Amino acid sequence: MSSEKNRFGLSWPKDAGSRRDMLRSRLGCEGGLFGGFATVSGILSTRPEMIRELDRRIPGLVMITTKSYQLAPNPGNREPVIVEASAGSFGNAVGLRNPGMGKAVEELIRLRSSWKMRALLNVSLSGSSPEEFVRLAEGFSPVADTLELNFSCPHAAPGYGMSIGVEPELVARYVRAIREVTDLPLLPKLTPNTEDIGAVAEAAMRAGADGLVAVNTFGPELYIEKHSGKPILMNIHGGKGGKSGRWIHHEAVEKVRSIREQIGTDPLIIGMGGVEDAKGVTAMREAGANVVGIGSAFAMVRPEDWEGWFEELALSEESEKAVRPAVPRIKRPQMVYRPYRISSARSGIGGLRRITLDGRVPFEAGQFVFLWIPGVGEKPFSVALSDPLTFLVRERGEMTRALCALEAGDTLYMRGMYGSGAKLPVTRRAWILAGGTGLAVVPTLASALVGRGSELSIFMALSDREAAAGTKSEADTLFSKELSALGSYQVVQDDGVIGRAVKVFAGELAAEGAAEEGALYVIGPAPFMEAAAAAGRAAGIPSDRISLSIETPTRCGVGLCGECVCAGKLTCREGTFFTLAELEARGVKPGDFSDDH
Fold this sequence. Notes:
Oligomer: single chain
Strand content: 15-25%
Number of helices: 18
Number of strands: 27
Largest sheet: 8 strands, parallel, barrel
Distance between the termini: 28 Å
Radius of gyration: 26 Å
Strand order of the largest sheet: 1-2-5-6-7-8-11-12
Shape: elongated
């Protein structure tokens, strides 16, 4: 048991009856009342910053659930990890991607030290033996309010290849072992892929669980992309993934009903599976759920509409607003791949590959797409030019290595557009500093600024290593022709002075003396952006007119994975540009973001 002195979460009674009563009271569902809503493990509330944002913005959330954590870091599966079978119906094979217990506990301590949680923090645990779950429960008990036990993991004992949650006696053994080391409420998350979910639920409650979470994903299912005929998801199971969202709702409701009929009226049930509107909430409540989990439906509602959406979810099914919801929903599929023929692929200065496709797609600076090679993977990329579609790629890993190997005539698949365009204030002067693959954002950004009447200066930073990686006689990866037509354009090589482009910019800014009338846009590696922003501010450019393009990890593009959160916003929905004022208000620095899971 963790000591009270080191506990950041709630303290709970040792007595099971008192603990369960307190849990119901905290969730607001005592006396048969409906408690409210919870987030679902692995969806949206996967990072501490998003946990804080949801807790701050949505009063209807009485419980916020983390991703499932394991003892050791797990990189999970390679992208794609989420697929949309039809609008609002998803498949996933994330593979329990997480930073491991050590780092996760540190992150949650920082969260709980800096933010007083309103909702209960439900920490999800994933292990493959009772001993692993015991260690996880001991490690996370100081920072959690409740512990969710992900029993859809494979059982590691010899002779077992099944999920823990399909066998009642196995579930009971796990729960009893975990119960011995913590007083926190235990909430086993049950798999629907079992013949008798009611028997599993009853065994969990008898062994010491304080409530149940039902249900996890159905399936798995194989998802084939229609143009290529290839599996979309990347995993050791041949591209199969669990089913979530709209297409499992009816079955999920029936599973919750079966559980309630088996365990009686008293135990707590957090019911989930494809709930997206007041009708779905009512169905879950009538089946026996005291709290309703909201997961995949977050992909169908934009972040600016979350508050209104949760207000509608809480309405009775028959109310006028529930029948005719005012909050807009995204009704079209958002993850559709389209094939494009590569018209040219040439290497150029900076070690960059300029890839041009047959086709055009309108977009704004701050938006991006995913490029997919079947059997290899997918990654997000900024579009450099819209007509014809043009991308800049630098080899960094297996996906970009395969991308750089493609030649004219090959087929490349694209999905998107994701994110929103940068908000551009009208200013007399504007400066753009770009480095690395951030160069791809510049042509569209520059064109938009000139279109708004700004006199433009562009500084392209080129390190000595990048300059040595290509020759100017190859493809124009610096877009010299396009950008020279829009304003003053300089390619600034380091020449032995790291970040020399920032120094050149600062010198010209000081000589001109027009900082207070202008705006600065910076794209590139984190240290470069921090130095450029500092130079702009020192010269007098207001912090709300210094914009930085933040590259965050993103794996879905539709607001599900939560990995791309920055300063409380999802870059896949709200774009990659943030003002320095926004970042400073949240204590965020460009270097805070890395693919650390």
